[in-house]
Amino acid sequence: MSEIEQTSATRLALVTGASRGLGAALAEGLAAQGYHVLAVARTVGALEELDDRIRAAGGQATLAPMDVTEPEAMKQMTQAIAGRWGGLDLWAHCAVHAAPMSPAPHIEGRDWSKSMLVNVEVARGLIAMLEPLLRQRRGTALFFDDARGGQKFFGAYGASKAAQIALARSWQAETVQTGPRVLIDSPAPMPTAVRARFHPGEDRGALAPCREEAARILSLL
Questions:
Q1: With 70 as the cut, is the pLDDT of residue 3 above it?
Q2: Which pTM was predicted?
């Protein structure tokens, strides 16, 4: 993470899974609204391209090329946010693992394990780490549902994504009085890499542009 000096007055938005798709569109939209965006993803090149677009539009970002599945890296990130900014105004969780489609009896163990790690365990760990920072600023956490649970061939992805959203809904119910605010949205189908894995050859022109969906989601804030 860069050594940009920030103050506690800076509005800070953390986007996990910020390198492409909805995450990148949200990062750009938040920067345009005056947030300093902390962009987390593994792909350095895509993060740098995101940073170029944000800065060209007059926004500010700090790049954090990290793997959300590494607890120690996430702990260091949390400590850096607390030390440099003092709190967190918004967390948009876009990181996801899309396991290959497969009949339930043929789901590979490694695909199942990675789905549960990225889509469930990472969310659990980040909720625990980030809640104090969000409470400090009366912030908001954003999760995104993709209701595939129970659909044929979506066993690993559908089950893990459903578990993530169930966890988010529990947190949402628990924090009505105390904060932070937890919002769960169901975006329209978009031409993302995740969707392309499930629908190869689809007419992507008929899908909702990521930037339009990002603008709609940010209007909820």
A1: no
A2: 0.94
